[in-house]
Amino acid sequence: MNIAIALAALTALATSAGGFLAIRSRDRLHLVLGLSAGLLLGLVAFDLLPEVFELNAATFGNVRVVAIAFVLGFLALHFAEHIFGSHEPAESDYEHEHDHSVNIAGTLGALAMGGHVFLDGVALGLSFKVSNALGFAVFIAILAHAFSDGLNTVSLLIKSGHFTQRAIALLALDAVMRISGAALGTYVVISDASLSLYLAMFSGFVIYLATSHILPEAHSRHPSKMTMLATITGVIAMWLIVGNIG
Questions:
Q1: What are the φ/ψ torsions at residue 59 (nearest 5 degrees)?
Q2: I need a labelling partner for 149 at 20 to 30 A (CA). Which of 20, 62, 164, 195 fits?
Q3: Which residues, in sequence order, are bridge partners of residue 63?
Q4: Sign of the four-CA dihedral 136, 47, 148, 106
């Protein structure tokens, strides 16, 4: 089995673990989310952005095209979140009126998450085309992101009133989408310029998730110094990982 596809399967297990913990225990999840955000920030700052700027020096309007792609990736996920209602805070109050519109919004939000985890898988497959070092760094950050995805998929469905079989089905969908994305990213043939644009957009996705979604969740009920320390630990950990495998 291709390494990117095998690693994508492991991230699917992390998604399931996140969903399980969303059901069983929430007392220490803010620390995990803080650590996850730090890993994602470190990945972009120390590995992804340096790689994409090296791969593509083209400019548009006197601005590097990869920088434009980075901003577009950030805005694309921002707009998708507000249109589909995905990425509601996992630690928000579950007390909610379960009318028909909420049911639809919760299910659509969880399905929208399936779309972006497909893009995670594509990024994982493509990153191994650049180098094994970048591929493993992306895997570590996606692993952290996958855990958060599991939390949110189950939380959205708890709010919508569809909790058991549908939660399991959507966690399975996340797994299938991530693995299929990795397969596409592994076998598709694209130029270095196109690869850099995709990875730059993916960097925008990651920064949006870390700053506008995961960190607010981490601090929503536990605005503690320990949460901030977990985030700093994640950044330093990714710095050490990139420095040693790069």
A1: -125, 160
A2: 195
A3: 60
A4: negative
Query: Residue 225 has what pLDDT?
Result: 83
Q: Which residue in the block uniquely carries the two structure tokens 């120390």?
A: 46
Whole-angstrom Cα distance, residue 196 to residue 198?
5
200 touches 145 (CB < 8 A): no
Name the residue range of residue 31's domain. Answer: 3-245
Task: Compute the CA torsion angle 203, 181, 146, 153 (nearest 10 deg).
Answer: 110
Task: Write phi, then psi, for 205 (nearest 5 degrees).
Answer: -55, -45
What CA–CA distance (Å, rounded) separates 210 from 17? 19
pLDDT in tens, 214-241: 788 777 766 678 889 989 998 998 888 8
What total number of domains does the chain contain?
1
Phi, psi angle pair for 61, to nearest 5°: 60, 35
Q: Which two tokens stand for residue 201?
A: 């957009």
Q: What is the DSSP letter of 63?
A: E
Number of helices and strands (H, E) in the chain? 10, 2
> Any bridge partners for residue 60, and if so which?
63
Q: How is residue 88 annotated by DSSP?
A: -
- Give this prediction's pTM: 0.74
